[in-house]
Design brief:
- The protein has 226 residues and is α+β, with helices and mostly antiparallel strands.
- It has a six-stranded antiparallel β-sheet with strand order 1-2-4-5-6-3, covered by helices on one side.
- Strand 1 and strand 2 form a beta hairpin.
- It contains six helices and six strands, in the order H-H-H-H-E-E-H-E-E-E-E-H.
- It has a single domain, classed as Roll (Thiol Ester Dehydrase, Chain A), CATH 3.10.129.
- GO terms for molecular function: hydrolase activity.
- This is Acyl-coenzyme A thioesterase THEM4.
- Belongs to the THEM4/THEM5 thioesterase family.
- InterPro entries: HotDog_dom_sf, THEM4/THEM5_acyl-CoA_thioest, Thioestr_dom.
């Protein structure tokens, strides 16, 4: 593994340092992950659950008290809001990303993650849908190393063995070849020496103006339905 800081082109590359507000949101997301896990696993009495609900409602009121038009999620960088490795996203594990420059022309991307019970499918093991999505994230980052990133066109997963919870899973992805706008990538997921799954993902490179159009087209400022 390279000891150099990981830098990614396009939407994976952060231009600015994290602000004090960003760090506060990272701390909030950390506690939210703890709340998600604890509430999911808790065997507390109904009275304790009701008390917790009241505390959560108060927390929502605190976060809404100074609400202004716009969205912190829309203004944050993709690396911070990613649903898999974004430190500001309470839904992320978060996966720890890295880069191995010794692989192929562009290098490989690695992602280390420990899945817990909220991600469970088969008893004691990760749901296959999360594994597929993790591959999409890792290989999406790998294809961006070409400097001409695009969007997922086709994702194919072969599951080799069940992926256990509470165990470090190493995802690895790299660019296999490029054919015009098509970027062909491959990836693996291992539990130690055990191969859990393999992936082949086709990405379709997009011109910068298309990415700008997607950014402008989203509306993250809309309020969720009541």
């Amino acid at each position: 593994m390279s000891n150099e800081p990981v830098s990614f082109p396009s939407f994976h590359e952060r231009a600015n340092e994290l602000s004090a507000s960003d760090h506060a949101r990272i701390r909030l997301a950390e506690r939210m992950r703890e709340l998600i896990y604890t509430s999911f696993m808790s065997t507390a009495k109904d009275s304790a659950v009701d008390a917790a609900i009241a505390e959560v409602e108060r927390a929502i009121d605190h976060l809404s008290a100074d609400d202004v038009p716009g969205s912190a999620a829309a203004e944050s960088h993709f690396s911070d809001r990613s649903p898999f490795y974004g430190l500001m996203n309470p839904l992320s594990m978060p996966m720890e990303m890295g880069r191995d420059e010794s692989v192929g022309e562009f290098g490989a991307i690695t992602g280390n993650v420990v899945f817990t019970e909220p991600y469970e499918g088969p008893p004691g093991h990760c749901h296959g849908g999360f594994i597929a999505a993790a591959f999409d994230e890792v290989l999406g980052m790998a294809q961006s190393l070409t400097g001409r990133p695009g969007m997922t066109g086709k994702l194919s997963i072969t599951y080799r063995s069940p992926t256990p919870l509470h165990t470090n899973i190493m995802f690895r992805g790299w660019v296999e070849r490029i054919d015009g706008r098509k970027i062909f990538t491959k990836g693996t997921a291992h539990n130690g020496d055990t191969l859990c799954a393999e992936a082949e993902v086709l990405f379709l490179s997009m011109p910068p103006e298309m990415m700008d159009m997607l950014r402008k087209g989203r509306d993250l400022s809309a309020k969720p339905p009541q």
